[in-house]
């Protein structure tokens, strides 16, 4: 499988009053066209690693796959940029409009057409997970420590899923939604329950990211950045705890603070 997340290219750099020839790291953009039952479903602009996880997570979050038995096979042809998916069912009329879409790696309006279907697939969280402040801070520290490529390039979104204790899995991608889809796909492949898990994210918590968390089914999302007003409203409605500005030993809880335990005597 294609794993070249980084490429090195020659550049001219201005440094200390002089122009010098050197090289720099670039993140790789890779268009992956997802074919479902022989028809084009979407083209996702992504980082070219963990592609099967990405496809699984994307289709599951869109509602194209509702249970593991819906999936017959996935074949990744990274030399041509295709993922061939065969399901044990038809997609149905709801997805007719979805064919031949391009899902850009950027954020914002490129995904606006999702909104009606998003609310149909997003789930109100039933999670009963609770975390201590120390666990919240430790998970963000661990995410930042795992983000080696980001430190080299500054060009990737980083995300992880964890239970706050022993389980922690990290993914990165040029697209923030893609990073979350890869984590979701990882859990689907390994039949890992997501209900009592936490998403840790490097970027701001927008409404789109909050809806993605609701589609995955987690009860909490943590970020070093701020949420948007719509994200907070959705988090309240969908019973998701949104925690932001996790920096320098501090953080803000914007919704459902009951999942954050008070500091106990051992942490003071």
Automatic annotation (TrEMBL):
PANTHER family: FORMATE DEHYDROGENASE (PTHR30592), SULFUR CARRIER PROTEIN FDHD (PTHR30592:SF1). One of its GO terms (cellular component) is cytoplasm. NCBIfam families: fdhD_narQ (TIGR00129). It comes from the Bacteria. The active site is at residue 107. The lineage of its organism: Bacteria, Bacillati, Bacillota, Bacilli, Bacillales. This is Sulfur carrier protein FdhD. Belongs to the FdhD family. One of its GO terms (molecular function) is sulfurtransferase activity. One of its GO terms (biological process) is Mo-molybdopterin cofactor biosynthetic process.
């Amino acid at each position: 499988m294609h794993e070249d997340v980084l490429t090195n290219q020659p550049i001219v750099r201005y440094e200390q009053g002089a122009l010098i020839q050197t090289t720099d790291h670039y993140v790789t953009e890779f268009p992956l066209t997802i074919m479902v039952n022989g028809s084009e479903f979407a083209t996702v602009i992504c980082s070219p690693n963990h592609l099967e996880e990405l496809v699984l997570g994307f289709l599951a979050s869109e509602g194209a796959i509702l249970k593991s038995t819906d999936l017959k096979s996935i074949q990744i042809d990274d030399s041509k940029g295709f993922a061939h998916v065969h399901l044990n069912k038809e997609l149905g009329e709801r997805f007719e409009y979805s064919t031949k879409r391009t899902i850009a790696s950027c954020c914002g309006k490129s995904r606006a057409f999702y909104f009606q279907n998003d609310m149909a697939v997003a789930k109100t969280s039933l999670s009963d997970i609770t975390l201590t402040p120390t666990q919240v801070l430790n998970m963000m520290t661990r995410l930042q420590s795992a983000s080696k490529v980001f430190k080299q390039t500054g060009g990737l979104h980083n995300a992880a899923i964890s239970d706050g204790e022993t389980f922690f899995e990290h993914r990165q991608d040029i697209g923030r939604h893609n990073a979350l889809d890869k984590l979701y796909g990882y859990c689907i492949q390994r039949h890992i329950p997501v209900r009592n898990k936490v998403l840790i994210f490097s970027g701001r918590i927008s409404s789109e990211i909050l809806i993605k968390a609701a589609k995955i089914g987690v009860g909490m999302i943590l970020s070093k950045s701020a949420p948007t007003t719509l994200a907070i409203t959705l988090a309240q409605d969908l019973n998701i705890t949104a925690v932001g500005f996790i920096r320098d030993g501090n953080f803000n809880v914007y919704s459902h603070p009951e999942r954050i335990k008070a500091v106990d005597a051992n942490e003071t």
